[in-house]
Amino acid sequence: MQPKWMGKCPDCGTWDSMEELTEATADPHRPKAAVSEGASGGRAFLSEDDLPARPIGEIPPFETPRISSGIGEFDRVLGGGVVPGSAILLGGDPGIGKSTLLIQAGEQLARRGSRVLYVTSEESAQQTQLRARRLGAGHEKLLVYAQCNLEKISRQIQKLRPDICMIDSVQMIYQPTNTSPPGSVSQLKDCCSDLIYLAKTGGTAVCLVGHVTKQGMLAGPKLLEHIVDTVLYFEGDTHHDHRIVRCVKNRFGGTLEVGLFRMGQAGLEPVDDAASLFLEPHAEAPSGSVVTAALQGSRVLLVEVQALTAESMLGAARRKVSGCDSGRVAMIIAVLEKRAGLRLVDQDVFVNIVGGIKVTDPSGDAAIALAIAGSAMKRGLPGRALVLAELGLLGEFRGVSNLSQRLGEASRLGFKQVILPARHSANDSAAVKEAQRTMQVHLCQTIDQAVRLLE
Ligand SMILES: Nc1ncnc2c1ncn2[C@@H]1O[C@H](COP(=O)(O)OP(=O)(O)OP(=O)(O)O)[C@@H](O)[C@H]1O
Ligand SMILES: [Mg+2]
Description:
Blueprint: H1 32-37, H2 72-78, E1 87-92, H3 98-111, E2 116-120, H4 125-134, E3 142-146, H5 150-160, E4 164-168, H6 185-202, E5 205-211, H7 223-227, E6 230-235, E7 242-250, E8 258-264, E9 267-270, E10 289-296, E11 299-311, E12 319-322, H8 326-339, E13 347-353, H9 365-377, E14 386-387, E15 390-391, E16 397-398, H10 403-412, E17 417-421, H11 424-427, H12 429-436, E18 440-444, H13 447-451
Parallel strand pairs: 1-5, 1-6, 2-3, 2-4, 4-5, 12-13, 14-17, 17-18
Antiparallel strand pairs: 6-7, 7-8, 8-9, 10-11, 11-13, 15-16
Helix pairs in contact: 5-6, 8-9, 10-12
Bound molecules: adenosine-5'-triphosphate and magnesium ion.
């Protein structure tokens, strides 16, 4: 780099071969796509590069206008819709429905006047069209581009100026100046930072599809999650038809909401009655099955906890957990042994939350405990009781949040019995009294008292 005008190149000696570079173009830290294509000439959105440091109070408030995707459950999990210029990462197991969701959202966005560029790096344009036809998508503003080369993708973005650009998937695209293979850490880093730079400077929202490893993590470096604004994960298993889209990071909204869908012939359909989505109809409560009401964002979902205890053959008892935290289950087993007198040390214990949903809400502790105790004692709860309580190390039942909302859903779905921490009779007496109009309420102080309700 030379600070002044020069006619002859000091390296190769040729005349008139020097090019003028502006300061921004020469910035070595600027993403390559932006440098080669001059992306900063696009619609200025979040670019505040040249502004000096200012007192925080003088910064004008950033209104986050949102584009509705036309799919209520998708908007809900995004915190109200797509924020222009933001970067969204959508992860999930193979075949779970990532491409389906994007094509459906793309079609709805196009129908609402947005220009959508869907870049398919894994499938051909024909394959994408086949899926789109099955899903009833075919709007002229939904553009499909089959490409893996990031430079060409960047050029298309700058030429078309889409409102939303979807990259399916980010693991297959490559920056040609980088010699590492697609999907490698260095490629992912390069490609994502380039795309996000384009998003921020041009006002195009970018939605990246990422694959998930066997451990359920987004393949590639954690860095991907750090550099995007919103991270969404598909949950559920491909053997069942319901799908959950969970938000794990959102710079423009909360992370508690989930989107609930059913996968059908015509694609993903939003679920109307979310509360009962995971509930199988059982007339009686089988031993080892207990229902609890878990809070997912602003919604209550009734979920069935199943447990099985079986004599251990190996000497070392196994604990297998799916859908909840294994450390929490280990604590619950210890509390059952110490505080309720159960002997589980020589028993294998399996715990499963039915339907592939993950429950992190501690109000499900007592349900897990009673499912394990029920299986070990071969007893079930009276009727089909709903259980709501967090379990303390002393075996005490601790209160739960949003009690009246949870009880309301249980009552609406026809539950006749409910087991609650005794402290709610004083703290939330109105909610308990309301529940007593339709349900028999068992108030317990400890897990020991609740275990005695198993019959
Ligand atoms: N003809 C069909 N009829 C009904 N459902 C279908 C049909 N074809 C595919 N599906 C459903 O769509 C799912 C695949 O969805 P999709 O291709 O969107 O998944 P994906 O997450 O993008 O997968 P990948 O990781 O392989 O890209 C299948 O598992 C199946 O449930
Ligand atoms: Mg796909």
